[in-house]
Amino acid sequence: MDATADRSPASGPGRLTPDLISTTWEPTVVRLSRDGGRVVWAAAPHGRTGEHPESGLWTASVADPDSARRLTRGGNDTAPRWSPDGSRIAFLSDRAERGTAGLYLIDPDGGEAEPLVVRSRAVETIAWSPDGSALALAVPADPDDEDQRREKERDDAIVSGERLARNQLLTVPVTGGDPVVLPVGDLHPTVLAWSPDGSRIAFIARPEPELDLSTDAAVYLVAADPGQPGGTPQVERVGAAPWAEDLCWTADGTELLVLGRQATSLQSSATVWTMPAAAGSTGRVLGPRIEEPLCALGVRSPGPGAPAPAVITIADGIETRLEWRGDGPDATTTLWESDGEILDVDVAMTADGPVLAALVHAGSGPLEVWAGVPGDLRQLSDHHAAWSGITFGAVQELISRTDDGWELHSVVVLPTGGRPGPHPTVVLPHGGPYWRMARNLHCAWHDWSQLLAAAGYAVLLPNFRGGSGHGNAFASAVLGDPGVEFDDVEAVIASAVEAGITDPERLGIGGWSNGGFLTAWAVTHSTRFRAAVMGAGVSSWPAMVMTSDVPTFSADVAGAAPWSDQPGHSLEHSPIARATQVTTPLLMLHGQEDVRVPLSQSIGMQRALRGRDLPVQLVVYPREPHGIEEHRHQVDLMTRVVDWFTTHLPV
């Protein structure tokens, strides 16, 4: 029996608070040693208390659920990677210069970390050579003499397209010494993978550091040692990979596995492509195929002896599972299906079969590290021990159907206390829009479900068109028609009313990012909501295309740029165009340094509502980007959210 099957959220007399949520540490990434015997993971608190983030590394034996021990502390230690022989762990840390990550090595049994590469700019990604003699890394070049002169003399005008801090691709021996710069031209490498025979490095790169140019990303190859006989100095382009997120080699070294998109738009479903490891290759979809109502969340190459070349993490509605995937529709089998959302996974093939390590919301509980053979994973971490006495709202699935035929699989969090419904209900649309609400605890600075459940509300977490877990047609259905997904939100509300969960006369709505946009859309198109919280939400699509760091994506979703032959289209789909219709008390929350959804989106909405006889409040968090990072800001935000709903939508 799967050890996760009978796990459920802890219950007891404790109390959930914003401070507890923000200060609790949570695992962020997990890796298995190649022999499947040991696990290393990074963990960090939700909110940071100092100027820089803090993260630490932990290790444990797969065979011993009580063996977890902390390996590092005091800096921002992230991205752990086992050496092939398991004798060392490479990781990134800013312990030498806070805020600037360098490359370090440490013995998994403890001791002092050894600096390998520490530069004036942060190392971004690393990969081991298969023999463990070297590491590859992507890092921007150090400032040259001209950069230093410009900064010193304050003669530093920024010219678009000039003096870009592109990543270099380097290799460095683990014995130390000067890194070798590999010839990648003007590309900006972001993800690296060393070939099984050690001769080549595959990497994903875009033409410039600008994130929006991920539409032009591709997979490339370069010789790991161009000076060796047969080494190819020039970089070779394998094939296009727009918005690709991850990359690994098949065990035989003949093909590359790429976590990418079904189409060139970011607003399409994620899938895994396989590409022959040669210049000018044509990729093919390994899965999910475009007709499957599924999405990929991650990919791993399990190594020699596996029954298939890839292990793919699959999102299926609100469920998550691991699949063996090979070529052809019949080359798919389930490796492991979890009873909670899987956020990261690693696989090792041993003589006895596969071993897994994963970050899992087991039983819709808190996120922890689990490891073992499929069907018998055991919990190794206990970062949420302080939550053991808390009563959480039950997490359930809610199935709805829209008038035009979509079947929606959403999540409901019931209020604590066991009172019968119907309940006052807060709807929390997710971000993205390519995201989903799955089987997890739903308790974070940006997911207020459990705090609201503790305050007496039912919470609806709708999975609407544009999201993950339902395939490409579902994901791309919002392209050019933002706001159409609100019809799905209404369908979920109707299902909750029919099920006796929701009181239709006592509704609130709120969310972050795309959830903030849908909140703005809701209050400008409906009068049924009695309170609303718009977190970093879009109010004007024309302004998004002009000011966001993802203008191409914004134009794709909006349907047109303001300079196109349909300049009015994106404004018609903007909440700001109907701001005079708002009757709902509205709280707006935003990070001052947000470049994804700039602060001007909330300022514009506030100006549109100024002078109205309506409770409207804008709260701006200094120094914060799109996601709120500082502990006190997170606590303030969560407290304000609960207070806003309890004031304007009393239980």
Automatic annotation (TrEMBL):
Residue ranges occupied by any Peptidase S9 prolyl oligopeptidase catalytic domain in the UniProt entry: 450-649
Keyword Protease: yes
Any Pfam family matching the protein: Peptidase_S9
Molecular function per GO: aminopeptidase activity; serine-type endopeptidase activity
Disordered: region residues: 1-22, 67-86
Annotated GO biological process: proteolysis
Presence of the UniProt keyword Phosphoprotein in the record: no
Keywords from the UniProt entry: Aminopeptidase, Hydrolase, Protease, Serine protease
Protein name, as recorded: Dipeptidyl aminopeptidase/acylaminoacyl peptidase
Source organism per UniProt: Microlunatus kandeliicorticis
Lineage, broadest ranks: Bacteria, Bacillati, Actinomycetota, Actinomycetes, Propionibacteriales
